[in-house]
Automatic annotation (TrEMBL):
Primary location group: membrane
Record keywords, A-Z: Cell membrane, Glycoprotein, Leucine-rich repeat, Membrane, Repeat, Signal, Transmembrane, Transmembrane helix
GO cellular component: extracellular matrix; extracellular space; plasma membrane
Subcellular location: Cell membrane
Transmembrane helix in keyword set: yes
SUPFAM superfamilies in alphabetical order: L domain-like
Record protein name field: LRRCT domain-containing protein
UniProt keyword Transmembrane helix present: yes
Length: 568
């Protein structure tokens, strides 16, 4: 019986190969005639059916046929319909390919890439048909038989793990229980899958195809998985997704297609996924997105579009997705944010836009994000931030605006951030901070101002943030700190002052005294003097009045009039 099934499957596959070979060969011969379009004639290549030999359904022990006439008729009918269905599908696909190929010929040399893609797609379809299929087991001993194969089977949790077995094909020797709930095929070398790879696995909830080399998936490969909840296809080599590939997965909640080579996805590919809550499309090659791509995904809570090639975002891309909690669009090339992009998204808690090219924030861009707790704008091209831009973000705990081009922090720039605890403004071009720049953020615990161009601070600049615990002032251009600058910070636990050109004259004594009184708070106990003279390289905390002032006063007192008085 088993050999018979394998034989029939092989013959059906061979016939399909012949059809595609004849189609492809004929078309390539026509295309080789450069320039002129092919003549119009019916596509009607004939082939001789192969002799399959005697009927294989014979009991070896008795020599008797084991099929009744009705069984034989039914099997013949099913086989015929199956072959006709596959032939019709291949011919339908081939007719589409014929039209595309003919169009490629008309356009000549400019369509060579398109022609190459069409031929590659034909090859991928053939390779997917060559892939083996699991043996689905419904017997009472199914889980014991499952353990006899190369995969690990756990009956208690109904899981099958084929993780990291270096598979290039689905193992023929592996039985899969029909009631499997979780199947892990991650970290293998699968290049494609048969369209029937998961046929009959209607109870499957989790499928992991992570970290393979999958370039192509048949459009019906997931059709049996109507109870699938989590699907992971990340870290593969997918270049295209069929519009109908997820049409049957109506219960899907998590879909990860990140780390592939997708340049676009069909607009309707997610239309049936009404229960989807997590969608990860990061690390692909998207240059643009249709504004209707996410339309109807009203349960979506987490969307990740990071590490693509996006230069713009459609204004209505997130329209209606009112349950969103996390939006990540990091590491793209976005220059402008549409003013209405986040309209109506009152439940969003995390918004990450780091490493783009955003130069300006529209006035009310964050107005509706009243639940936001983390906002990341690191690594953009912001030159300035208008006071009040964050005024509606009353729940914000973290604000990251480092790695921009900010030169000045005006008064009231952080107004409204009553719950802000972490503020990172490192690696900008800051030269000036207004004395009231930090008003309105009384709960601030961590302030990072390192790696800027600051030379001085207003003496009362830290009075609005008395709860501050961590502060980074390193890698600036400070020569001294005004008397009393650090006195309001009674809760400080950590401060970094290194890599500043501290000028050790009389003006450094305030910092020297403060360091000695709070030595346990200093990240690097050795902030160094830049000068003057022999004091360069010495520790700021060792300076004394005699070191920095005595010589200075003596020098001033010994100054003589070097300009000779004019004699009249």
């Amino acid at each position: 019986m088993k050999k018979s099934k394998q034989l029939k499957r092989a013959m059906r596959l061979l016939r399909l190969k012949v059809i595609l070979f004849v189609i492809g060969g004929s078309l390539l011969m026509e295309i080789s005639n450069a320039g002129a379009p092919p003549p119009s004639r019916p596509f009607n290549h004939k082939y001789r059916p192969l002799d399959l030999g005697p009927t294989p359904f014979v009991d070896e022990a008795t020599g008797q046929c084991i099929l009744s006439p009705c069984d034989a008729l039914g099997r013949a009918r099913d086989e015929l319909y199956s072959i006709l269905d596959e032939k019709e599908k291949v011919q339908s696909q081939s007719r589409t390919l014929i039209g595309e190929l003919q169009q490629a010929v008309v356009h000549g040399k400019e369509s060579q890439d398109a022609l190459r893609k069409i031929i590659q797609l034909m090859e991928q379809r053939i390779r997917s048909l060559e892939q083996s299929v699991w043996t689905l087991d419904k017997t009472s001993s199914r889980w014991n038989k499952c353990s006899e194969g190369p995969c690990t089977c756990t009956a208690e949790t109904r899981t099958v793990s084929c993780w990291r077995l270096d598979l290039t094909f689905v193992p023929r020797s592996q039985n899969i229980p029909h009631d499997t709930k979780a199947l892990d095929m991650g970290a293998n070398r699968l290049g494609t899958l048969n369209k029937d790879a998961f046929k009959g696995m209607i109870l499957l909830n989790e499928l992991d195809l992570f970290d393979n080399q999958i370039e192509y998936l048949p459009d019906t490969v997931f059709d049996s998985l109507e109870n699938l909840i989590n699907l992971k296809i990340h870290k593969n080599k997918l270049k295209v997704l069929d519009e109908k590939i997820f049409i049957a997965n109506i219960n899907l909640e998590t879909l990860d297609i990140s780390n592939n080579e997708l340049k676009e996805v069909p607009v309707g590919v997610f239309r049936t996924l009404r229960r989807l809550t997590v969608l990860h499309l990061s690390s692909n090659k998207f240059a643009r997105l249709d504004e209707n791509l996410l339309r109807g995904l009203n349960q979506l809570e987490d969307v990740d579009l990071s590490r693509n090639e996006l230069t713009e975002l459609p204004p209505l891309l997130l329209d209606g997705l009112t349950k969103l909690k996390s939006i990540k669009i990091n590491d793209n090339q976005i220059k402008v944010l549409p003013p209405t992009l986040f309209r109506g998204l009152a439940d969003v808690e995390i918004l990450q836009l780091q490493n783009n090219e955003i130069a300006e924030l529209p006035e009310k861009i964050f107005h509706d994000l009243t639940s936001l707790t983390q906002l990341v704008l690191t690594g953009n091209s912001l030159v300035s931030i208008s006071p009040g831009i964050f005024s509606s973000l009353e729940q914000l705990h973290e604000l990251h605006i480092g790695g921009n081009l900010l030169e000045h922090l005006p008064a009231g720039v952080f107004t409204g951030l009553e719950r802000l605890e972490k503020l990172f403004i490192l690696s900008n071009n800051l030269r000036e901070i207004d004395s009231e720049a930090f008003t309105g953020i009384p709960q601030l615990l961590w302030l990072a101002l390192n790696n800027n161009l600051l030379t001085s601070l207003p003496h009362d600049v830290f009075e609005p943030v008395p709860k501050l615990q961590r502060m980074q002032l390193d890698s600036n251009h400070f020569m001294f700190l005004p008397e009393g600058t650090l006195e309001p910070l009674k809760n400080l636990q950590y401060v970094n002052l290194i890599k500043n050109p501290w000028h050790c004259d009389c003006s450094i004594l305030y910092l020297t005294r403060w360091i000695n009184e709070h030595s346990d708070l200093i990240w690097d106990y050795q902030p160094k003097c830049r000068g003057p003279g022999e004091l360069g390289g010495k520790s700021v905390y060792t300076m004394t009045f005699n070191d920095v002032c005595d010589g200075q006063w003596m020098s001033m007192m010994s100054i003589k009039n070097r300009v000779r008085a004019r004699v009249r």
